[in-house]
Amino acid sequence: MAGKSTFLRQNALIVVMAQMGSFVPARSARIGVVDRLFSRVGASDDLARGRSTFMVEMVETAGILNQATEKSLVILDEIGRGTATFDGLSIAWATVEHLYEINRCRALFATHYHELTTLAGRLPEVANATIEVKEWHDEIVFLHKVRSGAADRSYGIQVAKLAGLPQAVIARAAEVLAVLEKGESRGKSGGKSKGTGPVVAGAGGLDELPLFAAARPKSFVPQRDEPSEIEAALAALNPDEMTPKAALEALYSLKRQLSQKT
């Protein structure tokens, strides 16, 4: 929603325009020759070949890592999202390192794995960029401005709220998120890690999280719309005490009311 995928595509199009000698939408640009442009954006499966979304993603990523040269441009969006969190994070981490150390090409790599932002401090030519978001009265506004640095948090729950998920689901998601974040902070502070691999923590605290029904406040009452006149009339009918003729007349009456409403 913030526009990171659009930003990736925009840069790829700018490179294509520059290679053909066209003007580009910038005050100035120093791009140089690009021999190939590799893109891994979007998610889709391949039913005809029996490939899952993740398998398609890995096949395309493998093609990029095996063919990209120092003069190539690579844009990658959300590598590793199609599998388990730790597996996806590990693959994304190793992919960035391979692009840096082996391919040595220019690349734009979008991800929701916050752990990857630490690579900017370990690899001299890696830098973080994020898109600005403003919080306003428990709402979020996407500013569509790219700046240096890493995002301090994700806004998935806020986006789910914008999409119209029920309030009960949003509240429950916030509860689960708080438990997960608490477990992650414990994992990071509970021990030291060696090497350059990602540091992740488990979610053992979820075992202690009460079930949804038990977690509801006692004052919680599901919101329901008031019944319409037709629904009220239908609820007042007792088919067991009606003759076939009376039931037919009631049905026609409801049908007339419905036609008047529409």
Can you characterise this structure?
The chain is an alpha/beta fold. It has 2 domains: 4-154, P-loop containing nucleotide triphosphate hydrolases (Rossmann fold), CATH 3.40.50; 165-216, no CATH class. Helix content is 44%, strand content 12%. The chain contains 9 helices and 5 strands, in the order αβαβαβαββααααα. It has a 3-stranded parallel sheet with strand order 1-2-3, sandwiched between helices. Strands 4-5 form a two-stranded antiparallel sheet. Helix 5 runs antiparallel to helix 6. The longest helix is centred in the C-terminal third of the chain and has 23 residues, at 167-189. It is elongated. The two termini are 37 Å apart.
Q: What is the total tally of β strands?
A: 5
CATH architecture of the largest domain: 3-Layer(aba) Sandwich
Sequence stretches where pLDDT stays below 50 over 5 or more residues: 191-196
The CATH C-level class name of the largest domain: Alpha Beta
End-to-end distance, in Å?
37 Å
CATH superfamily of the largest domain: P-loop containing nucleotide triphosphate hydrolases
Rounded radius of gyration (Å): 27 Å
Portion in strands: 5-15%
CATH topology of the largest domain: Rossmann fold
Largest beta-sheet details: 3 strands, parallel
Nutshell version of this structure?
With 262 residues, the chain is of the alpha/beta class. It folds into two domains: 4-154, 3-Layer(aba) Sandwich (Rossmann fold); 165-216, no CATH class. It has nine helices and five strands, in the order H-E-H-E-H-E-H-E-E-H-H-H-H-H.
